Amino acid sequence: MSKGVHTSDSCIAEFLDEKFMNAKPYTRDKCRWSLQRTRDYLENADRCSEPRKITPDDIRFLMNGPWKDKTVSYQKSEYSYLKRYLKHYNNDAAAKSGVQFAQDMRVNVDWLDEVQYQQLLDFPKTPLQEIIIHLELCMGLRSVECVRLTLDDVHDTGTRPYLNVRGKGRGNGKYRTISFHKDTRAVIERWMKERDQMVRDIMAYNPSWKDPGTLLIYKLYKNKPRGGAYTEHSGAIDELVLDPIRDVLGFHFANHTLRRTFGRRLYHAEVPIETISKILGHESTIETLK
After folding, report:
1. Are 46 and 79 part of one and the same domain?
2. Is the pTM of this model over 0.85?
3. Which of 23, 80, 134, 242 matches a 20 to 30 Å C-alpha distance to 162?
4. Neighbouring residues of 281: CB distance < 8 A, sequence distance ≥ 6
């Protein structure tokens, strides 16, 4: 990062050059327009727009002023761009602002529309991003269920391959089986190539390292790699996998958004509610209909 960059315009340009280098022109433009709007709002209110100096109070000003009468989806999009922009300049004002978004007026609003759904499918992903999004968006798994999957839970033999999924419930949770989506085999094969390489890299540095046996693993560091299994409810999957994609696409979604989108698409395709409930691992169809 250039040491002498100080103006808000040059900061925006530098951020785009570094973080949106390979993005499509329209995606890059959406981010630029958003950051320029935010800059203008702050400067017109005699507030500092230099990303290293923006404060939590400035972000609350945006929420309670210029963004106040906008839709929730608009607010989330503008906030997402700004959050990533500030993080690039080592400013954690967004995290400290305590911003909370109001409930959208539409019932159960937190799902992807058809355009967003296709944009997310078409977005170039790493093997880890691809398998997480596939498991949630195309097979309806919860984030914690993705983390719990083991290599032994993948049954890719015979004419009806399936996943053995450990869901919610007392003790170790209740198991259910979910048949492969038409793309599941290819997605898992791409991930396993990546996973196998990660294991080789770690063991080359530390031969005594034990593979945790989970389908999803992480690898940290290049020269002295270490790795392990993701832990439940840590937020790592959301932060490492979805955050970078959200910031580029410019619309908000979380892990559960993808699962809910999966269920809604089945419902609109007139799949029986009892079948959807079983796939999602719900205790009753009442929970599914909510």
Report:
1. yes
2. no
3. 242
4. 142, 145, 165, 167, 168, 174, 176
Q: Do 140 and 56 share a structural domain?
A: no
For residue 262, which of 87, 88, 121 has the smallest C-alpha distance?
A: 121
Nearest partner of 58 among 88, 86, 33, judged by Cα: 86
Beta bridge partners of 219: 227
Would you tell me how many other CB atoms lie within 10 Å of the CB of residue 102? Answer: 10
CA 244, 245, 246, 247 dihedral sign is: positive
Residue 282 three-state SS: coil
pLDDT of residue 120: 93
Structure tokens at 3: 């040491």
Number of structural domains (the chain) is 2
Dist CA 156 CA 161 (whole Å): 5
What is the mean pLDDT, run by run of 10 residues, along the chain of 290 residues?
Answer: 66 90 78 91 93 93 88 80 92 87 55 88 94 96 93 91 87 86 96 97 96 95 92 75 84 86 92 94 87
Phi-psi map region of 140: left, alpha, beta (phi>0 left; psi -120 to 50 alpha)? left
